[in-house]
Write a structure and sequence with these properties.
The protein is built from 5 helices and no strands. It is mainly alpha-helical. It has a domain of about 90 residues. It is rod-shaped, with a radius of gyration of 63 Å.
Length: about 190
């Protein structure tokens, strides 16, 4: 029995040895798988990092391209808006256009006044110059007339008292004549020149 017991112990020991050996093989296989996984994991990790960098580069290029496109569009719209605003300001500030408008308006109004036989400013200025000339002549004649009678007036004053006649201002006289008969005044002035 001792041998049977020993054989059983040997059988048990050999079975335990086999199991221990198999466990060791499984353990080593697991370590090998872990090592392979780590090696493959590092390679896979490196590959994923590389893919991430490539993706980032592509998206940043696309983003930069989009940003450039947007900036170009904004610059274009800005320059269009500036040119339109400048054009409008130039139209508003364009003095020559305003001068042309004034000239056209003035010529049309002058044409209408000419058709209606309304005297122009030049006509009035000419008449005023002629009236001033007439008034100066009347003043000169009046002064000359008042100087001569004074010398004789002293002689006559001693002889008899004279009645004083009020002297009308030549401007008032010309105005009255001009109001009553403006054609005659104008004819006289025109005929003198």
């Amino acid at each position: 029995m001792a041998t049977a017991h020993q054989t059983r112990k040997q059988d048990n020991g050999s079975k335990a040895g086999e199991i221990a050996e198999q466990l060791e093989h499984v353990f080593l296989a697991g370590l090998g798988a872990l090592s392979n996984a780590q090696k493959a994991g590092v390679k896979t990790f490196d590959a994923l990092v590389k893919q991430g960098e490539d993706f980032r580069d592509e998206t940043s290029k696309k983003t930069e391209s989009l940003i450039d496109d947007v900036q170009d569009a904004i610059r274009g719209m800005t320059s269009d808006a500036q040119s339109k605003a400048t054009g409008l300001l130039d139209q508003v500030r364009d003095v020559s256009s305003l001068d042309k408008l004034h000239d056209v308006f003035d010529s049309r109004v002058q044409g209408a006044l000419d058709r209606l036989n309304v005297p122009s400013k030049r006509d009035f200025d000419s008449i005023n110059r002629k009236l001033n000339k007439i008034l100066k002549e009347l003043d000169a004649k009046e002064k000359a007339a008042t100087k001569k009678p004074r010398a004789t007036a002293k002689r006559k004053a001693a002889a008899k008292p004279t009645r004083k006649v009020p002297v009308k201002a030549p401007e008032k006289a010309v105005q009255k004549v001009a109001e009553k008969e403006p054609e005659k005044v104008i004819e006289k002035v025109v005929s003198k020149e």
